[in-house]
Amino acid sequence: MAPAVIPIPIDSLLAALHIVGTAVFAASGALVAARLRLTLVTFLFFALATGVGGGTVRDLLIGAPVFWVHDPRLAIVCCVAGLAVWFTPYRWLSPRAVDWLDAVGLAAYSVFGTAKAMSYGIDPFIAAVMGILTTCVGGVIRDLLAGQPSILIRPEIYVTAAALAAGLYPILLAGGASEAVAGLVAAVVGFALRAVAMTKGWGLPAYRGGDSD
Amino acid sequence: MAPAVIPIPIDSLLAALHIVGTAVFAASGALVAARLRLTLVTFLFFALATGVGGGTVRDLLIGAPVFWVHDPRLAIVCCVAGLAVWFTPYRWLSPRAVDWLDAVGLAAYSVFGTAKAMSYGIDPFIAAVMGILTTCVGGVIRDLLAGQPSILIRPEIYVTAAALAAGLYPILLAGGASEAVAGLVAAVVGFALRAVAMTKGWGLPAYRGGDSD
Amino acid sequence: MAPAVIPIPIDSLLAALHIVGTAVFAASGALVAARLRLTLVTFLFFALATGVGGGTVRDLLIGAPVFWVHDPRLAIVCCVAGLAVWFTPYRWLSPRAVDWLDAVGLAAYSVFGTAKAMSYGIDPFIAAVMGILTTCVGGVIRDLLAGQPSILIRPEIYVTAAALAAGLYPILLAGGASEAVAGLVAAVVGFALRAVAMTKGWGLPAYRGGDSD
After folding, report:
1. Residues of chain A neighbouring B65 (CB-CB closer than 8 A)
2. What is the pLDDT of residues A160-185, one digit of tens each?
3. What is the DSSP letter of A39?
4. What is the C-alpha to C-alpha distance for residues A89 and C210, in angstroms, rounded to an integer?
5. What residues make up the domain containing C57?
6. Looking at the domain assignment, is residue C25 inside a domain?
7. What is the pLDDT of residues C24-42, one digit of tens each?
8. Is C153's CB within 8 Å of A36's CB?
9. Record: contact B204-C33, CB cut-off 8 A
């Protein structure tokens, strides 16, 4: 577990999580636009708003310059992801493709969001809360634009998977893991929980109103 | 009415309004999560987003550091409020409990939001507008997350009660009242209007399309 | 096309687009409140939130002070627009009045938003993206508050018209046009596309899922 054993450059891993998160959230937004049979420009709008929406909220909360406003490459990533969906025949798209892309975005953004907040000197607990909050905002914006029920209120585990990834990262760091190891492990564990929840229909015990008290 | 007669420290009253507003909005968000039978982590997410959402918008608008990002105690207040709802048997919760908590939050946030904006040198008229706007944002976020119709478009007085509390505060200050007196009176009056509107079904004259002109 | 031939002061034109955009979006918000038969204060809230919402997001994204927080005149413009709708008999209001006001706001805000972002040193491509994004946010906020389907997902051209206005402005500038000419031409062309789309029911080719591949 010594950093030297895992030869992943720290910055590269976090940057990769950032780009992956942006791209897959963008694609999930474009998929919703596909389902609604929207036009190309509206496709790209959905891709952009979903791809950068969560990170925008994070940057505003921590007082950072909004990342994509000062770096056109992220907006281009969103457009490419949107175009990729546009040119994909609908019959190739699994009905659950949005959820799978969203799951990857959830894992990547929860960890990257927490790491970015910590790099701005935010307390680890609050940094994890913002990793969760801003990850969820991406899906909320997408579902809001499309007028569909928010992914947050579905019975499956969602926020909990984001919380697992976002919370694990600072805990692993405190335990002595390198940023690369902590980031990779936290993202994989968060994705795995969400993936199992989707495929097995797993849920945590929901509020039962004290019937079991 | 002289400040010396009312021995409430000014900062304490405004700080109390802030904490009360955050806690009751958080609890109202958790109650909506209870109605939707969500899991514990999603409960806490609803509590946090509803509890700090309005104040976050206020701080972004006035250019202040977002309050809860730099002070973990407010997030903890939201979690405690969410947990309190989680452990309360549903049959103990009045069907209108969300509205009552929301009414307390409305009064507290309208006054505190106005006071905080004024402390940043914002014009009193705009400060009151922001007290109103950001109070309403809390309820809008909660209703949006839950996919339910916004509290703003219900027939009862809502925005008007927020406006009364937010507008009364600078007027009382201009009239010579201390911050503590102005804050307490404005919050109580705003709450009273909302309470009467809820219990009596009071509404103001609504737009009738000039039928009465 | 030399700037000297067109004696429109640059600042005046952009300032006019700003005020026009704010006023017509505010009126469109009030019209939605009229349709919902809301009370006067809620009317003004809808007018304000719709009128300044898009520009608020733009200013937060580019790191500018939020325009209306430091200049009460814009909030007053919104209130006047809201009152004008309040005192207009409903039978005088065309059922499509919201869409027409929205179209004017779209053209004005797309150009002004792009120009303001460029004045903060933002890359022209991103500036245009923000012109589009923030224009669309106004309508999204209005439709969200009212609980109605977002204007973005209607079959007619909407985001594309905003993109045309927002994209044309920096292109015309790069081609040597003055700010006034570029702003006026871009706004008129964007409005014309939206107007034709509304009256003729024009749409762009929508996603067909590769059926035509």
Report:
1. 63
2. 999 999 999 999 999 999 988 999 99
3. B
4. 4
5. 5-87+96-200
6. yes
7. 999 999 988 888 888 888 8
8. yes
9. no
